[in-house]
Amino acid sequence: MNGPLSNVTPPTTSAIPVESQALCPAPQLLPGESIDHYRALQTVIFRDIAPQSAIEWLLAIDVAELSWDMQRCRVLRHRLLNTYRQQAIEMALRRIDMVPIAPHLHYMAEFYTLQNAHDWKHDPIAAIDIESRLASYGFDQHTISMEVYLQATEVISIFESLLNGAQLRRLLLLKELNNFRRSSGRSVIFRNEDTRKSRTID
Q1: What distance in Å separates the CA atoms of residue 189 and residue 182, rounded to the nearest whole number?
Q2: What's the Cα-to-Cα distance from 58 to each of 23, 51, 177, rounded to whole Å?
Q3: pTM reported for the whole predicted model
Q4: How crowded is residue 109: how many other Cβ atoms within 10 Å of its Cβ?
Q5: Which helix (H) or strand (E) element contains residue 198?
Q6: Residue 190's beta-bridge partner residues?
Q7: Spatial distance between the Cα atoms of 117 and 43, rounded to a whole number of angstroms
Q8: 8 Å CB contact between 6 and 32
Q9: pLDDT tens across 111-131, in order?
Q10: Which of 13, 124, 165, 181 is deepest in the core (most CB within 10 A)?
C-alpha cells in the first residue's frame, strides 16, 4: 500500500526551491523503491522544464509524479511476468511428467512438479537442468514466453491502460504548461540551464 515515506533520511536534496516545497507532497513510495531514484527523476525533469512560477511548479511536480508512476508500472509489470513465468514452467512440467502417471499418484507428482518449479526460480543450476529438459520436449524459451503472455494477458492489459493513461495525462500537462507560458508571453517550455538552449512544444 502506498504511504508517506517514513523512517528514512533522504540522501539527496529535493530539487524544489524552499519557497516552492509546500506545493509538493511527500513522496508516496512503495517498499523497495529508492528515494535517490525518485529525487534524481524529479531533478532532471525540473531542470528541463525550469518552472518559474507557482503554477509552473505545480504542473512540473505533476509531470514528475506521472513519470515516476510510469516507471513503477514498468517495474511491476516485469515482476509480474517473472511470476507468471514460474507458472508457465509448472504448466510445461505437468505436460511432461503428469501424463504417464497413474491417477492415484497425481498428488505426489503434483508435489514434485511444484518443487521443481520452485527450484527453477531459486536455484540457477536446477534452472539450467529444467530448461534443458523442457527444451528436449519442445518447450524452448519462446514457447514458455508465449505461455506467460497468454496467462497474463488480462493483467498486462491493466498495466497497459495505466501506462497509456499516465502518458496521456503527462502530455496534456505539458501542453497546458506550454499554453500557460504562451499566455504569459513565454513560448519556451523546456530550458537547459547548462547550455542555455531551449526548445518548444507545439
Answers
A1: 9
A2: 7, 9, 10
A3: 0.71
A4: 17
A5: strand 198-199
A6: 199
A7: 42
A8: no
A9: 888 888 889 989 999 999 999
A10: 181
Locate 192 and state its grid cell: 537547459
Q: Are 190 and 50 in contact (CB under 8 A)?
A: yes
Q: Which residue has the cell 501506462?
A: 163
How far, in Å, are 77, 87, 148 from residue 154 at the CA level? 12, 15, 11
**What are the CA-CA distances from residue 54 to residues 22, 23, 57, 174 (Å)?**
10, 8, 5, 15
Question: How many residues would you count in the chain?
Answer: 202
Residue located via cell numbers 517473472: 82
74 close to 163: Cβ distance less than 8 angstroms: yes
Query: Do 166 and 73 form a contact (C-beta atoms < 8 A)?
Result: yes
At 33, phi and psi to the nearest 5? -80, 150
Of residues 85, 41, 43, 91, the one with CA closest to residue 67? 41
pLDDT digits (tens, 9 = 90+) for 64-116: 999 999 999 999 999 999 889 988 998 898 888 877 677 777 778 788 888 88
- Residue 120 to residue 36: CA distance in whole angstroms: 33
